[in-house]
Amino acid sequence: MHIKEHPILAFKRGRRVEFFFDGKKMWGYEGEPIAAALHANGVRVLRRSIKLNRPRGFYCAIGNCSSCLMKVNGEPNVRVCVERLEEGMVVGTQMAKGDLSRAKANPISSSGGGSGIRKTDIAVIGGGPAGLSAAISANQMGAKVTLLDRNSRIGGQLIKQTHMFFGSEKQYAFIRGIDIADILADKLDKEMTDVMLNATVLGYYREDGVLGVEENNRFTKIKPERIIVATGASEKVLAFPNNDLPGIYGAGAAQTLMNEHGVVPGNNVLMVGAGNIGLIVSYQLMQAGINVKAIIEAASKIGGYWVHASKVRRLGVPIYTSYTVKKADGRESLERVTIWQLDKNWQPLKGTEIDLNVDVMCIAVGLSPLAELLWQAGCQMKYIPELGGHTPLRGEDMQTTVKGIYVAGDVAGVEEASSAMVEGSLAGLCAAKSLGYDNGRFKELREEAINELMNLRSGPVSEGMRKGLEQLI
Amino acid sequence: MISNKDHENTIVCRCEDITLKEIRDLIKEGFKTVDEIKRISRCGMGPCQGRTCRQIVMGEIARTTGKDVSELRLSTFRAPTKNIKIGILAEAAEG
Fold it and tell me: Please, what are the domains in chain A?
């Protein structure tokens, strides 16, 4: 079902178009992801898995997990969570690895691909809060930037954050994430930054420092003087029986579906994880008119801010602490979840099981940095659970152990959008300065950013984060 | 506790359809690094390149061997970071 009315959001949709799913005629909006259109039509099973023939839907909804591969216009292995709907599309459930027998061969165009190597001062990979801030600051110093984003628009995950931000005015406190995306996009110097959309960096080649990029179905190469990796993070999964049933989604995925694409994820939801993401997404699900049956948290305490927790509690949603998922059940997609209590040693207690009839379970157990480009580049990494997993070592200027490669935002340790923006600014400033660019304010702006980061991380909630970060510098 | 049999339905690697039972059996057989498990089972070699399964596999190895996750060695990360059609690469090569 498409959301018709929303207290905060007005959905800009394309025209209504017809498409086909397994031979059945359906309607969707042009330009929405195929998975969203299918979901709105009640289709949650997108494929059968490759060996065990299990029903699968999407998990991440933003092109990370590849759980949603389908056959589109005869072509198999299309990630339908990001592939856009077009009129008359023929979409089919993919069986196993799919086959190419009915795929049309696309002849190689005579114009050829991107043979030349594009040069730029700084390549910023990822156009979320960190990447945008990095580009803005680097431009300010005088450096030219190529900003690459795999999506068809910039803004990263700000685009689905309907809640207002905390922090200081500088980090846009009391402004909704969706509006911050627009503010940052407006600040971007269009003369100084070349924005490449639908552009995924496939690899970093250390031999010559070249980035291999797929842009709009073309392969191109970029050789930047400096690189700022701001690729963000991906949602973690949990291991329990039937954890792959369609209807079990990352909490961020459910948020993408409802806040970005305006599609209801389901009717009754169990939220797993009472950190900020779990709490915020629960509230937003209710804003979209969806029933949140319960929030469970394996720890003995709620991890997120009390303001968020009390908001959902006031609306009557129970929060079970020291509870985890025992198993999920459902024939083709999720129908029921069994939860059980954990003792002090995190061992489940028999006899504490509770069955919940839900068609959606959102997993909000944290994010891990999307750091594969850093690994490819040979950056030194360290496993820091407080920051989501393997995180790059870096100096105060956000430079990794590989000279010329900088990091900012969640890929540099999972925190919040506000610190991501400041880290981005800092990385942008320092990368530009290292190339000799300075508008005369470098020292002052750098100091300002470092102080802002300290302030943002000064609260008691950030203690773990601070300890984690200390190990990186 | 959930029996190992029940974990025949717990999916660790969605891309290659590998269950938690299989991972635990492999560790029991002596495959005790992320790389060994990857090579013997293809876990992490599908289109998502291990983004989904890696942390679960690391956790299982750590739990069984008594090591800390931070001590474990990961396997090599290679391009491409997502699936890409061979035609696109061919086109670029033709220039």
Answer: 16-95 (3.10.20.440), 117-234+368-470 (3.50.50.60), 236-366 (3.50.50.60)
Distance CA A98, CA A178 (A): 37
Residue A133 is encoded by which pair of tokens?
């801030």
**Which residues are within 8 A (CB) of B19 and not within 5 positions of it... i.e. 6 or more apart?**
A52, B7, B8, B9, B10, B11, B12
pLDDT digits (tens, 9 = 90+) for A286-303: 999 999 999 999 999 999
Q: Find the residue in A nearest to B87 (Cα).
A: A108
Q: Phi and psi of A79, rounded to 5°?
A: -80, 100
Contacts of B51 in chain A (CB under 8 A): 64-65, 234, 368, 370
The full set of domains in chain B, from first to last, is 6-94 (1.10.10.1100)
Cα-only R_g, chain A: 22
Contact A202 B20 (CB under 8 A): no
The 10s digit of each residue's pLDDT in A202-236 is 999 999 999 999 999 999 999 999 999 999 999 99
B35 touches chain A (CB under 8 A): no
Threshold 0.90, pTM exceeds: yes
Task: Report the residue from A65, A113, A389 with minimal CB separation from B14.
Answer: A65
Q: Does A56 touch chain B (CB under 8 A)?
A: yes
The answer to whether the CB atoms of A203 and B89 lie below 8 A apart is no
Look at A372 and B49 and tell me if their CB atoms are within 8 Å: yes
What pLDDT is stored for residue B95 in this prediction? 64
**Is the ipTM value over 0.85, yes or no?**
yes
